[in-house]
Amino acid sequence: MTAYEIVVGIECHVELKTKTKLFCGCAAEFSDDPNRRVCPVCLALPGALPVVNRQAIEYAVKAALALHCEVQPFSRFDRKNYYYPDLPGAYQITQMFYPIAKGGYVDIETTKGSRRIRLNRIHVEADAGKLLHASGGIGGAGGTLADDNRASTPLIEIVSEPDLRSAEEARVYGEKLRTILEYAGVSDVKMEQGSMRCDANVSVRPKGDPVLGTRAEIKNVNSFKALERAVNYEADRQIDLIEDGGSVVQETRGWDDEKGVSISMRLKENAHDYRYFPEPDLPPILLDPERIKAIGLTLPEMPENRRARWIKELKLPACDSEQIASSRFSAELFDRTVALGADPKTAANWIMGEWTRCVRVKGIGMEAEPVKAEHLAALLGQVSAGKINNKQAKEVFEEMFDTGEAPEQIIQRKGMVQVSDTGALDAIVQQVLAEHPKSVEDYRNGRTQAIGFLVGQVMKASKGQANPGLANQLLAAALEAMK
Amino acid sequence: MNLHQMTVQALSGLLERKELSSSEMTESFLDQIRMKEPELNAFITVARDTALDAAAASDARRARGEAMGPLDGIPFALKDNFSVKGLPMTCASKMLRNYKPPYTATAAEHLLKAGAVLLGKNNMDEFAIGSSTENSAYGPVKNPLDARRVPGGSSGGSAACVAAGEAAFSLGSDTGGSVRQPAACCGIVGLKPTYGMISRYGVTALASSLDQVGILARNVGDTALILNHVASYDPKDSMSWPGAAADYSAAMGGGVAGRRFGIVKEYLGSDMDPDALAWVQQAVARLISAGAKVEEVSMPNMAHCLACYYVLMSAEFHANMGRFDGLRFGLRAEGDDYFSMVTGSRTQGLGPEVKTRILFGTYVLREAQYEKFFLKAMKVRTLICRDYEEAFKKVDCLLTPVQNGLPFLWGSRQGDSVKMAATDKLVIPSNLAGLPALALPFGSSEGLPGAVQLIGRPFSEAMLLGIADYLEQEGPRL
């Protein structure tokens, strides 16, 4: 059987988090109330004209610099003409002929090692509106309703070269892209919410064949896991086709994540002729090197640099470094906490553990900065000073996360103290031993793990305030004495 | 003198001296409209109530001593492709029969803020496509000077309404001569300023890289006065020019001594109408006698201007027209799905000439032929611009005919797109180059006014108006 190679290129649309839309002053924020964030310009009323949002251009340049692209001193908008009910003007303003940035790359790490994925270009364009398919009929209207709140919000499209060689690489590329863009601070980069949307161009070819196979474009991928599954599915589908003596046709396919299959949406023969031409309502975008440089200076330290620095200077394990660097918010929290004197490994454990858990469970955005570095550092200080134990610290952390209060306040309010007084603990130890003769018996019979249960009982009896190390010590001594 | 034929400056004097109120003046123009319209058809919408309200407000300001300037209380009209909040805007199309824009075009806003009184919206060729107003879904406009002849287009209603004394002035739009050609047909002044000088915001686009708001007025002095009010940078139009504002009235009375004029060699051929040539020659004689220099210049690429213009204009037009799909505004046909609804709406809503241009624009922009048509036309456009640059190294101003003789007779070119297109070959090149150009009544034939065109360097409006003012004072008029 022939061995096949998977070839993937990814086109990724990223919503820029500007305050206003790309070509008008409407708020570029989500609204449940349809058609509220609209004006003559984004509704394409007769006579309305676009004006470029400077912030969007700066964000695009920032993203391009973070991705090592060559920002173009001259770029220009073009019109892409097609009819669709979510597109108010029947043309999308995009950059076909002269994109804002060319080249660039993303370095990825997979189980097979690290590889450099080249980028082709980045261009700026306006998003379309949204369609609501009202099966039951909203307000009796039925059919399809158009909501133009999203129309004309700014996007960048990041187009990779067909350099990816597996579904895993496609997923990791997407994740890495998200991390870098999050660092650049230009987008919310949320796949699930559509602020980052990846389309995969997938083809297969016999291993070693220099010619690219016919590709299919996979759309509607809503998570990185779905991206990996969709690429695998598509590669298998194409290989099966070829093995059965058929051939792949160029087409656009939609991914159905629930069913785990893709469905043909449009064949190449039916592809639109977009009739691109230069946008006559907008002057070209001219960027001088000074301005590009100034925008570059606003980028934070990027993930690969942080990771390398932590491994080298803080002796942080590589896998910890990787995980914490994967988000700008965890990375900045870590750097600031350590700068305030916390032990790097302990801080890393807390960020990878409790912080990550709380963010996930409570569904609070990391960007909301639910826990301040000052508070985390103070909390870790309390633990290392023996004022509270780890279990208490977790409780305090959760409280900090929920309320934003300083740990000292929470500790005081909850009356938390760690009982490290031998006399006070001894009484509890004696009481616990008296109440649990079975465990004492077990211990005597050589099942020393029974001491764990007894420590738990001491903690419980002390309402969690006992110093668990000391409790263990006292229990062991008492049990030995009873032998 | 008849009130309806007075200049803005004269009307302004009446208001200032309180010989007449704006309400009385507005009533009088509305009467004139009522009398003339059944025959003329220069208006699609007459905004009687809002006009009288605006006039009363102007009178109240004046009574308080707070009159805002020379346009306060002066009745005017707008081509019906300008958005004005609360008033219908049809673009002379069935597509927009019931459309009322929720906002006001910047140029209109400037006039309204100066206190001018909007009488209504002028008839035109549908979506500004045409040279005769024969393409209006609301019926053609009659030429007030000669009922057998067209009033020109596409701003034919604007030109006719000023010539017939229905308004003191009007604004139009000029993509390929649509202000200058009807002005010449109706014997008034038509100015298309430099591209970017007057905001296009709120004016329905025909071809965005060529469109410019223009002024139709009774004389050069009025044209300058109105330009003072509407020429200004608008952040809502990204192609508008910072620093467009100036006092153009100051250019009046400056004379032409020492100015260098160019006569375009390619416009002197045997295909030219003897009347058109005679008017240019008469103007040349006046200029020379006034101490100006006149020489012949060659502009070889003008021969390609029609082909170039039709490719670029149709391409941009087809894209600008995409928004008329019946979904968000305008006429909506019933349909089983989106595409049948769009097709139905456009089939019913748009006229034949508009459809032809959309098809042509769609054709020339097909990806496979982008280089053959669109890109080539862009290159030719550059060559045409260079012809002008070369000419303006030698001369300050070009003197040409506006059109090839008197306005054509009704129906003589309808349905013949090529012949109709050729009507505009003398006015189109300045749109391609974005240059200011002015049509001025000059000379006459068969009892009808003739016209000449002045074309200058970018932003040389002051100079053009000064020259036009001289020719207006000194030239042979009907």
Short description, anyone?
With 483 residues, chain A is an alpha+beta fold.
Helix proportion of residues of chain B, in percent? 25-40%
Radius of gyration of chain A, whole Å: 29 Å
Poorly predicted ranges of chain A (pLDDT <50, ≥5 residues)? none
The helix count of chain A comes to 15
- Terminal CA distance of chain B reads 17 Å
Decide which structural class fits the backbone of chain B: alpha/beta
The share of residues in extended strands of chain A comes to 15-25%
Q: Strand order, biggest sheet of chain B?
A: 1-3-2-4-6-5-10-11-9-7-8
Unreliable stretches of chain B:
none
Query: What's the N-to-C terminus distance of chain A?
Result: 70 Å
The main sheet of chain B comes to:
11 strands, mixed
Task: Describe how the helices and strands are arranged.
The complex is a heterodimer of chains A (483) and B (478).
Chain A (H helix, E strand, L loop, with lengths): L3 E12 L38 H13 L3 E2 L2 E2 L2 E4 L9 E4 L6 E2 L2 E6 L2 E14 L3 E4 L10 E4 L6 E7 L6 H18 L11 E11 L9 E6 L2 H20 L7 E6 L4 E7 L9 E2 L6 E2 L2 H8 L6 H12 L3 H8 L2 H12 L4 H19 L10 H12 L5 H14 L3 H7 L8 H14 L1 H8 L5 H12 L6 H15 L1
Helix pairs in contact in A: 1-2, 2-3, 5-6, 6-8, 7-8, 7-9, 9-10, 12-14, 12-15, 13-14, 14-15
Chain B lengths: L7 H9 L5 H19 L2 E4 L1 H16 L11 E5 L26 H8 L3 E6 L33 H8 L5 E6 L5 H7 L2 E4 L19 E6 L2 H11 L29 E5 L9 H16 L3 E5 L7 H16 L17 H12 L2 H13 L6 H24 L2 E5 L15 H6 L5 H5 L4 E9 L2 E9 L4 H14 L4
Parallel strand pairs in B: 2-3, 2-4, 7-8, 7-9
Antiparallel strand pairs in B: 1-3, 4-6, 5-6, 5-10, 9-11, 10-11
Overview of the molecule:
The complex is a heterodimer of chains A (483) and B (478). In chain A, a hairpin with a 2-residue loop joins strand 7 (105-110) and strand 8 (113-126). Chain A has helices spanning 54-66, 167-184, 224-243, 289-296, 303-314, 318-325, 328-339, 344-362, 373-384, 390-403, 407-413, 422-435, 437-444, 450-461, 468-482, and strands spanning 4-15, 70-71, 74-75, 78-81, 91-94, 101-102, 105-110, 113-126, 130-133, 144-147, 154-160, 196-206, 216-221, 251-256, 261-267, 277-278, 285-286. Chain A has 15 helices and 17 strands. Chain A has 3 domains: 4-292, no CATH class; 303-413, no CATH class; 422-482, Arc Repressor Mutant, subunit A (Orthogonal Bundle), CATH 1.10.10.410. In chain A, the strands form 4 sheets. In chain A, strands 1, 2, 6, 7, 8, 11, 12, 13, 14 and 15 form a 10-stranded mixed β-sheet that branches. In chain A, helix 2 (167-184) runs antiparallel to helix 3 and helix 6 (318-325) crosses helix 8 (344-362). The model of chain A has no long low-confidence stretch (mean pLDDT 91). Chain B is an alpha/beta fold and 478 residues long. The model of chain B has no long low-confidence stretch (mean pLDDT 95). Chain B has a domain at 3-251: Amidase signature (AS) domain (Amidase signature (AS) enzymes), CATH 3.90.1300. In chain B, helix 8 links the parallel strand 7 (260-264) and strand 8 (293-297). An 11-stranded mixed β-sheet of chain B has the order 1-3-2-4-6-5-10-11-9-7-8, sandwiched between helices. The chains are: A alpha+beta (483), B alpha/beta (478). At the A-B interface, loops of A face helix 9 and helix 10 of B.
